[in-house]
Amino acid sequence: MKDWLTVHEGSAPLVIGLPHTGTDIPPEIEARMTSPWLARKDADWWVDRLYDFAADMGATLVRTAISRSVIDVNRDPSGTSLYPGMTTTGLCPTETFDGEPLYRDGQAPDEAEIAMRRATWFNPYHAALRGQLDRLSASGPVVLYDAHSIRSVVPRLFEGELPQFNIGDNDGATCAPELTQGVEAACAISGSSLVVNGRFKGGWTTRHYGRPSAGIHAIQMELADRGYMADPAGPVSPDTWPSPYQPECAEPMRGHLRRVLDACIAFAESQR
Questions:
Q1: Average of per-residue pLDDT across 195-207
Q2: How far is CA 132 from CA 50, 143, 217, in A?
Q3: Is pTM beyond 0.90 here?
């Protein structure tokens, strides 16, 4: 296995994608960027640690260590926007969520470099995801759960404070309604705010693989990260972001997410 790509194979009918937890940036790319901190600012901080219990549940996990600022493996490889008319970042982002430039003048990747990054990182990540889905779906329906988090307040992307749990199935297209209902019910037990198909309806991964009629049910979970780490309400700086991972703060959220993953596995097993 490539050193930047980690696959843990499990036997349960559940594959968890971790596309945005990486912070690795090749030195030759980082040298062209405006700031090492800005280049890593929008990572899904600590999400791989948050879900590390999932391996003991039998889940399969696929994770890239490459930063989303190098290439975002949850974007349409054609460059087409997932949210037409709304602010979002691209396949090889040139700015942060807050609009700060990631590259020095004239240093952003051109089409040839973007194609190279796709071949080097995007394609192998998705080959690994596809391989695991094929392996598990040979025995019956399987759930693909794409795990994400984001700061609670990002005015350029959405108004106000994001709900704690943001469940996406692209308006019901990527999974059976029973799966979405099960995940929603598991989140509701927490008493925290939640929404289905709000600002985040599911990225390219969910939309590309989700084929309920073929037995692959894909769903995205976007957490507001205040639920498991200190999340500054206003603008962040290198002094305040990212806040450290604190197990005692994260433990309640891990309990909620265990319920969510239980619901995913129970749904898939009920279809077999």
A1: 96
A2: 21, 11, 14
A3: yes
